[in-house]
Write a structure and sequence with these properties.
The protein is mainly α. It has eleven helices and two strands, in the order ααααααααβααβα.
């Protein structure tokens, strides 16, 4: 009789939705160094405000189409007519402040670039360039904000970014691997630990 394969243990928050499970298994917690990928994720986390992440995840491809694959140079050229068109698009969150926020964030991104500041270095500096390796046992062990996310939020707001409160910043930090908040029992914890251990922005 064939031996039954060992059941995979995951963080409980991803449930059984295939899209969410794939996001958990392939994306969440893996260190990201690409400037534009970080920009996209920060903008999408801002869209999550007041909603669940799975709602935004289901709309991610539509967001990419609506915002030219999150190209900041194209986004900052949006005219009022384009913004009005976005507010009619059911594939994104039709909230004027949230639509405006991505344009403002694109301007902040480009202003930093013009100053010679690499977006990834700016963000990763809040964790001293290396992922924080937590040993989470359950949902009650996971923070909603930290001094690092507080500092990131304050610095981003100072540069004109919006929808970047400390809780949003911490969710962003978890997602892009600045913090390893996979449950220690989750099969992804060790992979993210190893990726973090070998991570470098260079």
């Amino acid at each position: 009789m064939a031996k039954k394969s060992k059941e995979i243990t995951r963080c409980t928050w991803c449930g059984e939705d295939p899209l969410y499970v794939n996001y958990h298994d392939q994306v969440w917690g893996r260190p990201v160094s690409d400037d534009l990928e970080l920009f996209e994720k920060l903008c999408l986390d801002g869209q999550q405000a007041g909603l669940s992440w799975i709602t935004i995840l289901r709309k991610q491809e539509t967001y990419r189409d609506a915002y030219y694959q999150f190209d900041p140079e194209k986004i900052v050229r949006y005219v009022p007519r384009k913004k009005e068109k976005l507010l009619q698009d059911p594939g994104i969150i039709r909230n004027k402040l949230k639509v405006d926020s991505i344009v403002k964030n694109a301007r902040g991104f480009l202003d930093m670039r013009d100053e010679g500041i690499r977006f990834s270095e700016f963000l990763w500096d809040f964790v001293d360039g290396q992922p924080i390796q937590n040993r989470v046992q359950s949902m009650k062990d996971i923070a909603v904000n930290t001094p690092a996310s507080d500092a990131m939020s304050k610095a981003l707001k100072k540069r004109g970014f919006t929808f970047v409160g400390s809780t949003i910043c911490y969710a962003f930090m978890q997602a892009v691997g600045m913090v390893n908040d996979h449950f220690e029992s989750c099969y992804c914890w060790d992979e993210c630990y190893q990726l973090g251990k070998n991570f470098s922005l260079d």
